[in-house]
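This protein record is not my work; I was only asked to verify it. Would you go through it and say whether the fold makes sense for this chain? Here is the record exactly as it was handed to me.
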Amino acid sequence: MSPPGRPRGEDRSAQPEAGAAAARRGRAGAADADPGVDAGAGAGAGAGAGAGAGDDGGRAGLALDRYDVAILRELQGDARLSNAELAQRIGLSAAPTWRRVRWLEQQGYVIGYRAELDRRKLGLDVLAFVRVDAERNNGASTRALEEALRALPEVIACHYVSGAGTFELTVMATDLEAFSRFCVGTLLNLPNVKDIHTSFSLGEVKSAGALPLDHLPGPRRPR
């Protein structure tokens, strides 16, 4: 007669293998666990809302934690890191790292990836800062000028700053002659432009810097 609780005819030899398989599954689950979600937020997430469940990876309503900030810091330094390399650097396994990167993209913390080009190797030797004074400071005129400036490839950055309808532009050109043609033939002919004032960069001390993240959770960047 079989012992109580064991079905008649059960193969005893399968028990150690089944136990080993369960142990392996447990170890795999622990490796894929996200300490910021599975352990910290799992109790409030409810059944079936663990990491990987749903589009938000089980992180709905959560704020950035030290792992998220570490990911952002690493991606700012090198956006070409593989998921495995990124996981190793931040101290998580690959699966929760991938889920976190996806969540950061979905939530708009990471808005894109792009290549950083050397402007001098591409022949763009002139970098200028141009203040554009507007003729009229009203909504319709300002929007028209914004759209016109946004469409110019020579303008790589544009800010509407405090003052009497003033824009601050960062402009690139191949040389001074090309920059002069751009100002006279294009900028001064845009709608609602009253005047322009230019300063030239004599040398780049720092450009395309990473965003400061020391105010967010996690260890501070060494200075």
Notes: The longest helix spans residues 14-32. DSSP finds eight helices and four strands in the chain. The first strand starts at residue 126 and ends at 134. The two ends are 74 Å apart (CA to CA).
